[in-house]
Every structure is written in structure tokens, then in C-alpha cells.
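Final report, closing paragraph on structural work. Over the funding period we assembled a curated collection of sequence-structure pairs, and we close with a single example.
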Amino acid sequence: MEKQINYGSYAGYKETVGNLTADLQELLKLSEEIALVNTAESIKETLEKAKDEHFEVAIVGEFKRGKSTLINALLGQEVLPADVLPATATLNRVTYSTEPYVQVEYKNGDSERVEIDRLEEYVTKLTSESERKAETVKEATVYYDTEFCRNNVDIIDTPGLNDDDQMTNVTMSIIPKIDAAVFVISANSPFSQFEKEFLEKKMLTSDVGRIIFVVNCFGTFTQDDENKIVETVRTRIGKYVMEKAKKVMGEDSREFAVYKRKIGTPRVIGVYAKRALTAKTNGDKELLEQSNFPEFEKALETLLTQERGVITLQILANKITNSGTEILRSIVMQENALMMANDEFMEKYDAAIKEIDEIRNLKRSEFVKINDAANKVFEDLRPVLDNYWSNIEEAAMEVIDNFQMSSDDFKKDRLKLVSSKLTEKIKESMEARAQIICEQIQNSINQAVSGETERLQEFEDEFFESVAAIQRMFAVSDRVSSNGGTLDKVIGAATGAYGVGGIYLGFRESGVKGALLGGATGLAGFYATYYAAMFFAGFFGLTGGLPITLVMMAFAGIAGTFTSNFAVDKILVQERIDKYKTNFKANVKKQFHEMMLNNDFTETVRRQVFSSFDSIKSKIEEETEIILRDTQETLDNLNDLKAEKSEVSQKEMERLHVIAETASELVQDAYAVRKVLNDEISINNPQSEKSEKTQQTEKPEKPEESENTEKK
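Its predicted structure, as stored:
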């Protein structure tokens, strides 16, 4: 019998999620029926997360690249305001609702519900009044009945990346939190200097795998020229991405080889967004095909369902197999224990409790090893941390040394501009240097954590084998249970080669929108700009403890603040260029010294390292204790039951068998799903280029026909 799993489309993915959550609901009932309290609570948590599961897609790019038009084309109708001037001034989220309205959240914590036809009054720069109001808005959520959002996809429209520094930082802050990004580039001005710098300095190396670059054409070129533009953009992106990856990972490293294979060719697609919107509005299928928009929509669908969504499917399938297996084990143990003589049961009960204690001791010893691994990572990073500040300072000094000046630059009407230019160059150099260093640090942490979770597979295998051994303690040698040993084989099939899913992939769940899919997990995205901002904050007399969300605002008005705090007149009179640079360096060095005293970068990294490894311990503790507590509580309940009566009724035995048969079917279904999904989640698997991910896998008719066999 074959089981077909389709998750290559929104509909197929949604159906698969629905089927898996329905199976989990059934397992929840079964676990409650046999009093597996901890397993039931764990299933409830997973179902709660699945209930709120949705995709988030951000549309980013410079202003006036056609972002709002592209979103409207996705939605199939004019929902967001678009204009020939920079329009979007806030984050606008579009989500599904049968009733159209807008919920406006203000920066002061207030919120307001407004009619959808008044949206542009709150989120645009189209009038001075709307721009003033937009400055007070944190985010506007547009609730609308669109087919696209009906697929549990939220679209986030962002302000232009270089329209306003503050809004650029708001846009950058959401990238680590989303599932996918669409970076819009104009065919009329492809790959501007800002877009080049964004790829080189702002975007994390690991972000590329979840970005689709869209070259928005406006019909001013021939088809051949447009194709050449798209190919040029693709080549440039690939070059910039790989050059940066080499710096972060090392060109000869295994990590770079895997990264290069996984990322492959960046997704770059040319579209006519305005033409697509017109086509959808008028129902013109031919015009829609000419816009090339369906190719973009399919690429986005593939990215979300096959690459992002597969993780959710894997998590759900893992929970089914692990929870279902625990139900089966509990039933087998109950059935056999209830057939034992009381004396024999008590002997094995005591041995089982002792074995549970031994498993916990083994777990504690593994935690010591995890701590040792964290200490080793931190010590290995010591040389980088010890040189961090001097490295950043060196970047600033190089800019000052190489900054070209002439005597004309010391004229009063020019010095302010020159100082501003030098300040900006120092800031950019610091950001770039810090970005690379912090990405290298984060890469080292990620690799170490990944290695440790792989090492822990051996512990996980030992853990499951120990739990299975407890069950086998209660085997009845002179009688055959009525299930004929089938449950034992189902358990073996479910926990064989894929047993690692319980903890290993469960741990990675916490990083679904972070480390696993490429977002900043702590250091890389933040410190590249944070310390540059802190430097200038102190240099110009601003508070040294700026909140994370405000640090980049320190760059506003740098030139004016600079000239008021620097001895410009004295420099003009005395030694001009050399003296100017010498005094500038002295102020820079002084500020670096103050930053080192006030901001302990080494301690920040230490916390990052140990919190990463602590998350492994927390996940292991959570997953193993669910099983151990339920096993012990089952034994305690059996102990009480044996004290009350010597044998179980036939009716009770039949009830357990019905539960076991249902759980067995659910485990086998989920096991089949896991076989299909396993390759997709592997880091060594290149990105799929299949247009549709409909795969078939054999569903084992009988457990003994499965590829996996019972653990010995």
C-alpha cells in the first residue's frame, strides 16, 4: 500500500499539516485514556504551536522599486497604497480575514481600528499630515479577504531601505524573524551602490537561502535586454554572496563547501508587477503569463512549503512517532505486567525504578560533557575576542589615514561636509569589520552546537534503548500476549534509524526562523551595527546605554553634532590636515577605550555561547523527562492496581488493544511521512528545483516489512 504525501503547494502543505495535527489530536485522546499525563501535555503544546503556524514574507528593497505594486499583484487587487513618490512609511502587514479593516498599533502602545479606505492616512508619505501620523505608527495590520493570505501567509510591506535611516533599521530588524524575503530590484537601475553594499555589509551570509530577488521590469527594455539584466543581477549577487561566505567560513572549510552546494544559484526572477496586477484585476490570463509573475509565485510557494514548511511537517511527524511509540510501549508494559504474579512484578518494578535513576545519572553526565563543549568553544574564541576592539579600532584608523583631504577642505563652509563624510566612512568601515568578525563568531558557535547535537545522537540512542529495556523487563516468558509481539516490532520500526528526531530535530525547532533558516541568532546581525552606533553615541556625547532598537538613530545629524564638539577653529589655525587627523585619531582612541570599559564584548559572547549549549540541555531535559515521568507513573499506577487485584479483566485488555491498534496505525503513517521528509531537512541536500513535491513512499503493511528493525 502506498502513501502519497503532497507538500509542494499551499493546498497540499495545508492538507498535510491538517492530517498530521488530526493524528496528534487522536494521540492526545489515547494518551489521556491510559493516563500518560506528560505525553498528553507535550502533545497539547505542539498542537498549540501548530494552531498559530503561518508563513511570514517580507517585501524589501530600496524605495520606488515597486514593492507595494508587487504585493498588490500577489494579492490580486489594490490593497496597499502605491505612488510615484516614496509611499510606504511604516511596516504594513497583510493577513487573512473575511472582514476588511486595519488595526493600527502605535509606538506608545495604543492601537486603533480604522476603515481600510483610510489606510494611506496612517502609513504613507503622500501628504505631510500622513507622514506626521506615520511617524507615530509602529505597525499597521491590514485584514483582507485575499486568496493568497488564505493560505496562512502574511505579507509584510516594508519602507524603502535607503529612504530613511530609522525605517531602514526597522526593516532590517524584522529579517531574522521572517520565513522568506522578497528583495525587489528595478530593471531601470539594477544593482545600485546601496543594493551592492546591502549584500556585502548588511545582509547575513546565512540569509541568502530564504531570499528571492525580483527584478521588476517596467517595459522600457527589449526582452533580450531584460534577460541580460536579470542574468547580470544573478551573477553579481552570487559573486558578492560567495565572497562574503569565504570571509566568514573560510574558503577551504567544510562549512563553505556545504554552503556553496546548498545555496547554489541565487533565486533571481524578472517580473512585470504592474502588468501582473492589471492582468489579475481584469482576469487576463495571457497578460499574466507575459508578466512572468506565475514563475515568481511558484518560486515563493516552493520556498515556503518545501524548504520552510518541511520543518514544521517534520516536527509534527516526529511528535506523532515519539508520542505514539510511548503509548505503545506503555500498553505493552501494562499488558505484560498485569499478567505477572505479584512477587515477580514487584521484583521487576524495583529494577525498573533503579534503571530510571540510572538513565537520569547518564543524562547528568552528558550535561557535564555539554558544559565542557561550551567551555572549549569559548576558549577557542578567546584570541578573536581579545583582539576584537583593536581590530575594529584598526579599521577606523585605516579610514582616517587613507582619507583624502586638501587645504580647501579647511574652509569653514566645507569643513562640516568633510567631517561628515569622514565620520560616515568610519562608521561604514566599523560596521563592515564588526559584521564579519561577529558572523565568524556566530558561525563557530553554530558549528559547535551542531556538532554537539550530532554527538548526542549516541546518548539518544542509548536513552531509547534503556527505556525499551524497562519495557522488556516485564515480558512474560511463559505466555504470549494477545498482540502477538506486533507492538514490539512497530516500536522498533518507529524508533530505528529515525529515533534521533525526538530530541535532535526538536532542539532545532527553536531556531526555525533563526539559525536553521539563516536569521541572526544573536551576534552577527546585531553587533555589526550596535558597536558602531555605541561608538558614535559616546563620541558625540549621547547616552552610552542606548536601547538596541534605538542605537542606529544615533547616526542622525552626526555632522552637526561633530563640528560643535570638535575644536574646529583651533585646527584651522594650527596644523591643518596632519593635526586634524592626529586629533581625530586621539578622539577615536579615547572613545574606543571608553567603549571597552562600558561594553564587555567578551562577556556578551560568553553568554551567547553558554545560552546556545544550555538550550540543548533544556531540550534534552524536556524530551527525556516526558518519557521517564510517564514510565514511572505507569509503573506506580500498575503497582497500585496489582495491590487491588491480581489480574485485569478481559474488557480492560480489549480496551488496551483497541488503543494500541489505533496508535500503531498513526505511528506507521507518521513514519512514512518522516521517510519522505528526512532528505529535505538535511543540510547537505541541495535546494530542490522540482516544480512540484509530490512523493510516494511505501507504507509498511506489517511492521516486520519496514526497513528499520527493532533495536537489540
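The longest strand covers residues 137-144. The radius of gyration is 30 Å. We thank the funder for supporting this effort.
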